[in-house]
Amino acid sequence: MDVRNCKSCGKMFNYISGAPLCPGCNAELEKKFQRVKEYIQENKSVPLSRIAEDNEVTVNQLKRWVREERLVFSEDSMVAIECENCGRTIRTGRFCDKCKEQLHSGFSDTIKPKAQPVIQPKKQSKEAKMRFLDRE
Ligand SMILES: [Zn+2]
Ligand SMILES: [Zn+2]
Asked: Which residue range forms the structural domain that includes residue 136?
């Protein structure tokens, strides 16, 4: 059992997963989330700070929802957050499409060069040894 203090009200509760909030505060936050979701559909040109103010949530909480891809700003919305890598404007998630792609190819690039040099030197030294033996 994982008993924690609620981050919002300080009450002890049985932690399962997600945000460290007691069931009461979690339900409260969920209600706020639904409200924000409706709010941003009706108020497309309202900045994050206004959304936070009008819905009694923090800007950080709003950003967290966006990063978790739960909150999605529509294409014609004025509101957006920055890509965590290059700072470009994005509507949801953590990275822009470009950085997502780069991260992908970046990963495969780092795997390939690592694997090859390990095999080649071994092969060469074996051949060198064989040649050496042939001469003897
Ligand atoms: Zn609580
Ligand atoms: Zn980016």
From this structure: 97-136
